[in-house]
Amino acid sequence: MSDDSPFTILCDLLRPYSSDMTVQADTENTFLLEEERSGEKPQMFARVHIGKRYTSFHLMPIYCHPGLLDGMSEQLRKRMQGKSCFNFTSGEQIPRDELQDLIRRSYESL
Fold first, then answer.
1. 98 with 76: CB under 8 angstroms?
2. For FRET with 71, which of 50, 94, 102, 109 sits at 20 to 30 Å CA-CA?
3. Within 10 A of 79 (CB to CB), how many other CB atoms are there?
4. What is the pLDDT of residues 1-14, one digit of tens each?
5. pTM of the entire structure?
6. What is the DSSP string of the chain?
7. pLDDT tens digits, residue range 17-71?
C-alpha cells in the first residue's frame, strides 16, 4: 500500500492512540481501535476500512458528541456520510491537520 493511500494516511493518524487502546484489527484492509475509558465494555473508537469504491473512516465519539464537529471545514464536511463516517477515494481529499485535531479532541472527550 502506498504511503499516500487514504488507508495508510488514516491509519497513521490513529496509530499514536494505539498504545492507550486495543487494536482489534490490523489487516491489509481494516484497522480498528477500541477504547475502554468511556464505559465498562470495550467500544469502537475508530475504524478504517477499504471498501469497493472508497476508504471509510468511522470516528465514533463524534456520534455521541456532535459538538466535536463545530467549525468543521467544507472540505471535510463533503466527505461525511452519516453521523460518524467519512469516505475518501484519494489521499489528497484528506485534510490531515484538521482530521488529526478532530481525532485528538475525540480522544479527549472520552
1. yes
2. 50
3. 20
4. 567 899 999 999 99
5. 0.93
6. --TTSHHHHHHHHHGGGTTSSEEEEESSSEEEEEE-SSSSS-EEEEEEEE-SS-EEEEETHHHH-GGGGTT--HHHHTTEETTTEEEESSGGG--HHHHHHHHHHHHHT-
7. 999 999 999 999 999 999 987 777 889 999 999 999 999 999 999 999 999 999 9
